[in-house]
Amino acid sequence: MYILMNFQLDMIEDKIEFFEGDSLKTIEKKINEQIEINKAILLKVHSVSHQTTLLDDGRIHYTAVVHFKLKAK
């Protein structure tokens, strides 16, 4: 007796990721690491948006949003 299993794999076409850190260097490192990971699933950076916020205690908090899209064929 045979059991047939049907697998369907869909390509991820869009992916949005959020990053935060205490310095620009920190979030830049996190973003670069994620870019390398996403290359393996054929995603490239489409856009980046970032913001800095001054916290009540005087520290600066950095955030970024990166939109990854499927590489064009």
Describe this structure as you would to a colleague.
With 73 residues, the chain is an alpha+beta fold. The protein has one domain (14-70). It has one helix at 24-39; strands at 14-21, 43-54, 60-70. A 3-stranded antiparallel sheet has the order 1-3-2, with helices on one face.
Task: Furnish the topology, listing elements before pairings.
Blueprint: E1 14-21, H1 24-39, E2 43-54, E3 60-70
Antiparallel strand pairs: 1-3, 2-3
Q: How would you briefly describe this protein structure?
A:
With 73 residues, this protein is of the alpha+beta class.
- Biggest pleated sheet: 3 strands, antiparallel
Give the mean pLDDT. Answer: 92
Helix content: 10-25%
Number of strands: 3
Net shape: elongated
Rounded to the nearest angstrom, the radius of gyration is 18 Å
Question: Structural class, from secondary structure content?
Answer: alpha+beta
What is the total domain count?
1
The low-confidence runs, each spanning 5 or more residues with pLDDT under 50, are none
Element string (H = helix, E = strand)? EHEE
Q: How many helix segments?
A: 1
For the largest beta sheet, what order do the strands appear in spatially? 1-3-2
How far apart the termini lie comes to: 41 Å
Strand content: 35-45%
